[in-house]
Design goal:
mainly alpha, 434 Repressor (Amino-terminal Domain), 5 helices
Length: 74
């Protein structure tokens, strides 16, 4: 699964809209929409914020793994 599909699925599974998620990572809703559509690459800092928010590791949110491990807090 591509990260664009993964971030959309995580958002939908959490019953959130794009505006709510865009506020979490401090971007405009239109920018977040472009991330989900794959029009613009999502910055790593935003991926990390989303991983923290959804409590999933970076391998899962980036689509590298289908195993949903928790975010590794220090």
């Amino acid at each position: 699964m591509k990260y664009t599909d993964r971030i959309r699925a995580l958002r939908e599974d959490s019953d959130l809209n794009q505006t709510e998620v865009s506020k979490i990572i401090h971007v405009a809703q239109t920018t977040y929409s472009d991330y989900e559509k794959g029009k613009v690459r999502i910055p790593i800092e935003c991926l990390i914020e989303l991983a923290k928010f959804y409590n999933v590791d970076m391998n899962y949110i980036s689509g590298v793994s289908d195993i949903k491990n928790h975010f590794p807090y220090k």
